[in-house]
Known about the structure:
Layout: H1 6-42, H2 47-58, H3 61-77
Amino acid sequence: xxxxxxxxxxxxxxxxxxxxxxxxxxxxxxxxxxxxxxxxxxxxxxxxxxxxxxxxxxxxxxxxxxxxxxxxxxxxxxxxxxxxxxxxxxxxxx
Length: 94
C-alpha cells in the first residue's frame, strides 16, 4: 500500500473536513425547507404544487411554454382536454 506525502495528507484531511461541514449545512437547510413547507401547509397552501412552481420558476420561459404545450397536446390526445389551448375559440355561426 502506498502512503501519501504529508502535504497531500493535510490537503485530503482539509477537503474531507470541509465536505463534512457542507453536509451538515445541507442537512440543516433541508430541515429548514421541510419546516417552511409545513408552515405553508398549515396556512392552507399545497406543498406539492409549491414544489412544482419552484421547479417551473427555475426554467426559462421558452422551456416552460414548450413543456406546457406538449403537456396540453398529450392531455388532448388522451381525452383529458376538450380543446388545445392554442386552438382559436369556436365562434357561433352567424
